[in-house]
Design a protein that fits this description.
Elements lengths: L19 H20 L7 H4 L6 E2 L7 E5 L1 E3 L7 E5 L5 E14 L2 E9 L8 E5 L13 E5 L7 E4 L33 E2 L8
Antiparallel strand pairs: 1-10, 2-9, 3-5, 4-5, 5-6, 7-8
């Protein structure tokens, strides 16, 4: 599990059974993140929020939202590869469209574009996205995924690892905002949910 920081049913129908090994790994990752938010000197939480921080909120783990063997196709969309990405504080950041990942949820074909910045590591993909939970259970502007290539060059698209930009927890962070082209027309009921009574959302 990694995070670089820059009663529901899934789209497919019934919740997919989660193995004990995966559930424990995901749970450990989430507990570690809670500890960082609560006690670390670099916590993004505002001082007034730390006192009553009870842990981040998540959708229940669901393997229906973990897609293995996804290939990253070189970007060949309508927009230019290099473009300006808007940020949460009204600024901009130079970004590059690197690839397109195509996948299915509930039998519905979907796609997300992957981006990189000047300081991105080779092979790493940054995927900011919004979906039909955005503005309701999750931050209105969207959430993030960070992907690293598997040994065979494919990627595992695991929405259980979707996380909120740090500007959700404090207005002092400048966070890239998901472009409109990365808005999914489905509910992604996986990953982080909005916290209650915390942050700058």
């Amino acid at each position: 599990m990694h995070d670089h920081q820059h009663g529901h049913e899934p789209a497919g129908g019934h919740p997919h059974e989660v193995s004990a090994v995966y559930a424990e790994a995901l749970g450990g990752y989430r507990r570690s993140k809670d500890q960082t938010f609560a006690h670390d000197a670099d916590s993004p939480l505002l001082p007034e929020d730390r006192a009553h921080f009870g842990g981040l909120r998540y959708f229940a783990p669901d393997l229906g939202y973990r897609l293995e063997g996804v290939r990253a196709e070189p970007y060949a969309g309508e927009g230019t590869p290099d473009f300006t990405m808007q940020t949460s504080d009204g600024q901009t950041r130079r970004a590059r469209r690197i690839a397109t990942l195509r996948f299915e949820l509930g039998g519905r074909p979907l796609a997300l574009h992957a981006y990189g910045f000047a300081d991105s590591e080779e092979g790493s993909l940054f995927i900011p996205f919004a979906d039909a939970t955005s503005g309701q259970e999750t931050y209105g502007a969207g959430r993030y995924l960070d992907l690293e290539p598997e040994d065979d060059g494919s990627y595992t698209l695991d929405f259980n690892l979707a996380y909120h930009p740090l500007c959700v927890y404090s207005p002092y962070f400048s966070c890239p905002l998901p472009p409109a082209e990365n808005r999914l027309p489905v509910r992604i009921e996986a990953g982080e949910m909005l916290p209650e009574g915390i942050g700058g959302h």
